[in-house]
């Protein structure tokens, strides 16, 4: 059994941000931190006080996180970026919102005394005899303290208050991982005369500064009364800030619209999910029996908010079973058969539409990148000023088009049409020439959809319906959204600037018109798009031929196996250029110690060479990886660095490879990918050194022995969710069960009333076991689904009881 915590967050947009630049605007972006560790960074939106990001992330992490924070920054090309404000959400607050958080939240100021992090290791015990009572506080070490100095480190010391006495440890210079190993002793005589609130020991960590005041690094407090009962209090304790003294700013710093959902799952052993999986498999393999099939139940039980996640999990479950295309065909057939007007086919966000979208993203994302990336990159690089709407043409911008003087509105329109035709022609050629490269699973889905629609809407009057159904998914829900927002489909690392964004919007509109088979051309308010109508009409004819060829494939293709090849162990999970530090470069100038190399990661090896085409590769077996972690910036005076620790034998220590990424997002993506493939390795390390071993000591904790135990905890379970994640059927089934459990009463009330009421007593009497119906009619899908839900509920309750019995009660004082 395992625990799985998933934290989903979406940074939608900001509004009313303050201007930080002399131009009267800002260039905002967001940094996301979990317990003060950066896990994501949005792209920068240039010159905008009401930015839209729309970026979403799913983070898998241990249960013990405390705070999720969003920092809004203003990017500056010269000097340091400015902090605009932040939002901090505690785990307790997020968990108290079962439907998640989806709202506007005002930004607050960033108070340095609130920006604390790290832990301190203490041993506390009271020594008593007939004459006196003393408190011994053994201060051993601290880890992951906040950097307060320009060097990226601090000079920490500990100050302790108890019974009107103050004692301090020595100062440890230039480290975030200090080791004091000092015992401070306090006389407790007369402490009972103090107010109960003052009968505490307060342990504060400070950064010593030669000039100016010392910087606060955090504190932890213990009431003394429990210490009289316990022999000792020992362990790592989280450092906390002073009480929050922030005043309500009334939205003066602007606000963010965020969506946050926390799900904590207990993943049972696989055997417990087999009945649920089997029921789902039977629902797509057997012919429909009446109106109330399991798929009907699933769609009616899930709310509009949960339909997206349900679709994701169902697609992944059926991918794991090799039945994804069969599942989609079943959903699509139901959707087609219950649609009366062909013009409304797949226009709603039904389970069928959502499932098709998710399948295309999982299976077709590499295909999408291959088709669109070259032309999208060209649009970004050329930055042409393009505008067709006469109400939005800005003639001042046209000066960059021509150096011969002012340009008329007509000339701007003519040049815009020329640019758009060129881009659109290349996009159309790329898409319509990609039929053979389209994943076979997608092609078979479209072939079956083509057949279902043709059967439901026959005749010459409906000859275009089968094309519109396919193009509605392929163009309107796949290609057009990727053209409109390339950043959200990983086609670009940054959002488009306003000029490029306008070009992409016009191109996306044209592609949508092609996907609609040109049916709306000449109608509506956007008649200024008419110069592109001839090219769109010409492309519609080519589109029909393309779709005919796309679905022209053998019906006996093993679509399940085709889909699963995405997750074949030998497939390349991630690749790209990174900067590797030369192992022998110890005393060289830092900029000469990093060499650009091309890396490949599969589930078997982590390889690199001088270029993608270089024949000679160096490789590290994945099973030898012991840890994959960040590196402190002060170790090499370089940002965005990670280390890969490998071990060849049982011997302590190992080899460390240092790699630099170009930005924090790339760093997090590589950390996540490497951790996922090595998560089940046998010799994973519990601790590591965030610094480097240089000049005969570790730069992080200043210890001299190279093989000494690491000074910080590893983050093996912290990974980012991604469309290319390997399948995890148990985790997918558990999330699906959670959604079904929340709607169990709806299932019981709706499907066990009326005609099924007579069977309820019999069903309960036999413990919801299908075998009790031997000789009678088989159980309805609703009864079987309810039985599966309740069996899983009982299994979870049994594991919860076992955990409570096995976990001893510890008294804790903080």
UniProtKB/TrEMBL annotation:
GO biological process: cellular response to calcium ion; intracellular signal transduction; negative regulation of Ras protein signal transduction
Keywords: GTPase activation, Metal-binding, Repeat, Zinc, Zinc-finger
Molecular function in Gene Ontology: GTPase activator activity; zinc ion binding
SMART domains: BTK, C2, PH, RasGAP
Top-level division of the source organism's lineage: Eukaryota
PANTHER family per the UniProt record, alphabetical: RAS GTPASE-ACTIVATING PROTEINS, RASGAP-ACTIVATING-LIKE PROTEIN 1
Keyword Zinc carried by entry: yes
Database matches in InterPro entries: C2_dom (IPR000008), C2_domain_sf (IPR035892), PH-like_dom_sf (IPR011993), PH_domain (IPR001849), Ras_GTPase (IPR039360), RASAL_RasGAP (IPR037776), RasGAP_CS (IPR023152), RasGAP_dom (IPR001936)
Domain C2: 1-105, 116-237
Entry annotated with the keyword Zinc-finger: yes
Domain PH: 571-679
UniProt-recorded name of the protein: RasGAP-activating-like protein 1
Domain Ras-GAP: 306-516
């Amino acid at each position: 059994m395992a625990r799985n915590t998933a934290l989903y967050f979406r940074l939608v947009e900001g509004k009313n941000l303050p201007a930080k630049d002399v131009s009267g605007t800002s260039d905002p972006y967001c940094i996301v931190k979990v317990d003060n560790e950066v896990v994501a960074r949005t792209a920068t939106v240039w010159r905008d006080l009401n930015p839209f990001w729309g970026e979403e992330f799913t983070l898998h992490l241990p249960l013990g996180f405390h705070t999720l924070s969003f920092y809004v920054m203003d990017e500056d090309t010269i000097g340091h970026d400015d902090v605009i404000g932040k939002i901090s959400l505690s785990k307790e607050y997020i968990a108290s919102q079962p439907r998640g958080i989806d709202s506007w939240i005002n930004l607050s100021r960033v108070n340095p005394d609130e920006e604390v992090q790290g832990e301190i290791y203490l041993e506390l015990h009271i020594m008593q005899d007939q004459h006196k009572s003393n408190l011994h506080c053994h201060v051993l070490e601290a880890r992951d303290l906040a950097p307060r100095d320009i060097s990226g480190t601090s000079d920490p010391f500990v100050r302790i208050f108890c019974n009107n006495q103050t004692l301090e440890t020595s100062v440890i210079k230039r480290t975030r991982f200090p080791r004091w190993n000092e015992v401070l002793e306090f006389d407790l005589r007369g402490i009972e005369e103090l107010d109960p609130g003052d009968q505490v020991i307060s342990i504060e960590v400070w950064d010593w500064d030669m000039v100016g005041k010392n910087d606060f690094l955090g504190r932890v407090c213990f009431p003394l009364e429990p210490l009289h009962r316990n022999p000792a209090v020992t362990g790592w304790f989280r450092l906390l800030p002073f009480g929050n003294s922030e005043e309500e700013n009334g939205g003066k710093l602007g606000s963010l619209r965020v969506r946050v959902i926390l799900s904590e799952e207990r993943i049972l052993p696989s055997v417990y999910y087999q009945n649920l999986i089997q029921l789902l498999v039977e629902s797509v393999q057997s012919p429909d029996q009446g109106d109330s099939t399991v798929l009907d139940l699933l769609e009616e039980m899930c709310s509009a908010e949960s339909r997206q996640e349900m679709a994701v999990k169902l697609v992944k479950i059926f991918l794991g079973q090799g039945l994804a295309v069969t599942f989609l065909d079943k959903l699509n057939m139901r959707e087609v058969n219950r649609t009366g007007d062909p013009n409304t086919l797949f226009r709603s966000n039904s389970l069928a539409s959502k499932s098709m979208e998710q399948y295309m993203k999982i299976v077709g994302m590499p295909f999408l990148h291959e088709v669109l990336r070259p032309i999208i990159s060209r649009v970004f690089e050329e930055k042409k000023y393009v505008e067709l709407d006469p109400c939005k043409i800005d003639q001042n911008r046209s000066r960059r088009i021509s150096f011969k003087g002012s340009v008329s509105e007509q000339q701007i329109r003519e040049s815009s049409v020329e640019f758009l035709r060129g881009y659109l022609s290349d996009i159309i050629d790329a898409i319509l020439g990609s039929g053979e490269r389209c994943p076979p699973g997608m092609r078979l889905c479209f072939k079956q959809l083509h057949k279902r629609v043709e059967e439901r809407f026959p005749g010459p009057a409906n000859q275009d319906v089968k094309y519109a159904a396919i193009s509605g998914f392929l163009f309107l829900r796949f290609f057009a959204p990727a053209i409109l927002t390339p950043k959200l489909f990983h086609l670009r690392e940054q959002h488009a600037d306003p000029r490029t964004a306008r070009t992409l919007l016009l191109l996306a509109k044209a592609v949508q018109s092609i996907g609609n088979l040109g049916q709306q051309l000449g109608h509506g308010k956007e008649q200024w798009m008419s110069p592109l109508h001839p090219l769109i009409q010409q492309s519609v004819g080519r589109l029909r031929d393309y779709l005919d060829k796309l679905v022209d494939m053998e019906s006996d293709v093993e679509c399940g196996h085709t889909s699963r090849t995405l997750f074949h162990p030998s497939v390349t999970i991630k690749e790209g250029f990174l900067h590797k530090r030369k192992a022998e470069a110890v005393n060289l100038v830092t900029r000469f110690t990093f060499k650009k190399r091309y890396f490949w990661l599969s589930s078997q090896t982590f390889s690199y060479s001088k270029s993608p085409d270089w024949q000679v590769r160096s490789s590290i077996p994945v099973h030898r990886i012991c840890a994959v972690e960040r590196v402190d910036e002060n170790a090499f005076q370089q940002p965005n660095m990670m280390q890969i620790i490998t071990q060849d034998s049982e011997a302590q220590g190992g080899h460390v490879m240092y790699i630099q990424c170009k930005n924090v997002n790339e760093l997090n993506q590589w950390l996540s990918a490497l951790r996922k493939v090595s998560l089940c390795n046998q010799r994973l390390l519990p601790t590591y050194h965030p610094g480097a071993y240089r000049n005969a000591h570790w730069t992080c904790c200043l210890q001299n022995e190279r093989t000494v135990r690491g000074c910080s905890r590893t983050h093996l379970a912290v990974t980012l969710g991604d469309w290319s994640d390997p399948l995890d059927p148990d985790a997918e089934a558990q999330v699906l069960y959670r959604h079904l459990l929340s709607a169990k009463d709806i299932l019981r009330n709706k499907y066990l009333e009326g005609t099924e009421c007579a069977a309820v007593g019999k069903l309960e009497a036999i413990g919801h076991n299908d075998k009790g119906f031997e000789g009678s009619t088989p159980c309805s899908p609703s009864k079987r689904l309810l039985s599966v839900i309740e069996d899983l509920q009982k299994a979870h309750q049994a594991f919860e009881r076992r955990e409570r019995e096995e976990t001893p009660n510890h008294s804790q004082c903080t």
